[in-house]
Design a protein that fits this description.
Blueprint: E1 7-16, E2 21-25, E3 28-47, E4 51-58, E5 63-66, E6 74-76, E7 82-85, E8 91-95, E9 99-108, H1 110-117, H2 123-126, E10 130-133, H3 136-150, H4 157-172, H5 187-199, H6 207-214, H7 218-229, H8 233-251, H9 256-262, H10 268-279, H11 283-290
Antiparallel strand pairs: 1-3, 2-3, 3-8, 3-9, 4-7, 4-9, 5-6, 5-8, 7-10
Helix pairs in contact: 3-4, 6-7, 9-10
């Protein structure tokens, strides 16, 4: 199921100028807002997901932020400040002077991002708000992400996917970890997982399914599987899929399009690209070379 941000808000004195622009990537939803704020405009917000608010451009003035209705004000006076708000943490804001404002909201699916990064994320960092701070590198990435949401020449999804992942890593200040010292899967665990991958190779398999077979966390399982096999689970899965595809090519007269759909590929072109990448030839050429 696609990730959908879960946020409620109440605003006063804020008017939308342009229609909302947004895009979704793996683990992140990005919204770009262009609004006019009256003097004294205010809002209250709470989201079930961690999010980053980035001011892209503004005419003038500064914003007062607070984490409770009667709490102390935190002045965000820099023109292009940003704020990280943990999940389920309310935020109140007030704009002192009238003017236009463009901002980017990034909503994070933290479990999905942790699975992509392949490690447990620091719960303390994820639970600590950072209001009104500035960071030139994060702001540059945010502007590039905003262009992917609004520009007519948006790049391939993988481009935006890389940008949002880079921003998230910068935001949490995740450094490069030394080589994992975790133990590989036991022989019994490995047999169970690889048998499951072989039996279900023609469908999409979620990492959580494989981890559940071993009673390990997704992050620990990923490292232990690679330590045992030398490859990530997704690569093993694809190679198992191709072994079954090769059997169909060699023993049946099924058309290539039917094999592609049976094997779970979106279309024949996608199937051909993946087969050639792994097997070194197109499916048609591979079949001709091995059948009379």
């Amino acid at each position: 199921m696609a990730f959908r941000p879960r946020m409620t808000s109440s605003i006063e004195g804020i008017t939308l100028i342009d229609s909302l622009s947004w895009r979704s990537w793996n683990g992140v939803v990005a919204d770009v807002w262009h609004v006019h704020c009256e003097a004294g405009a205010r809002g209250s917000y709470v989201s079930q997901d961690a999010r980053l608010f980035v001011v892209l451009e503004r005419e003038q003035g500064h914003t007062q932020l607070r984490l409770s209705p009667r709490g102390p004000d935190i002045a965000a006076s820099a023109p292009v400040h940003m704020s990280f708000v943990p999940a389920d943490m309310p935020l109140w804001s007030r704009v002192e002077e009238a003017g236009e404002l463009r901002h980017l909201d990034l909503h994070f699916d933290v479990p999905a991002l942790a699975a992509r990064i392949g490690e447990e994320l620091d719960a303390e960092r994820l639970g600590t708000p950072r209001l009104g701070f500035t960071d030139a590198r994060i702001h540059t990435l945010a502007c590039m992400i905003a262009r992917e949401c609004t520009g007519p020449d948006a790049r391939h999804d993988l481009y935006g996917d890389g940008l949002v992942l880079a921003l998230f890593i910068d935001l949490l200040q995740l450094g490069r970890n030394p080589a994992s010292r975790r133990s590989p899967l036991s022989a019994r665990q490995l047999r169970r997982v690889t048998a499951f991958l072989e039996d279900n190779s023609f469908r999409n398999i979620r990492l959580e399914e494989l981890a559940a077979l071993t009673d390990l966390s997704q992050s620990y399982f990923s490292h232990a599987f690679k330590a045992a096999t030398g490859m990530p689970p997704s690569q093993w899965h694809m190679e198992a899929r191709m072994r079954r595809v090769q059997h169909l090519l060699a023993t049946s007269d099924m058309p290539l399009r039917e094999i592609a759909l049976t094997a779970g590929f979106a279309d024949q072109a996608h199937f051909t690209r993946m087969f050639r990448r792994i097997c070194g030839d197109t499916p048609a050429a591979w079949r001709r070379a091995r059948r009379p």
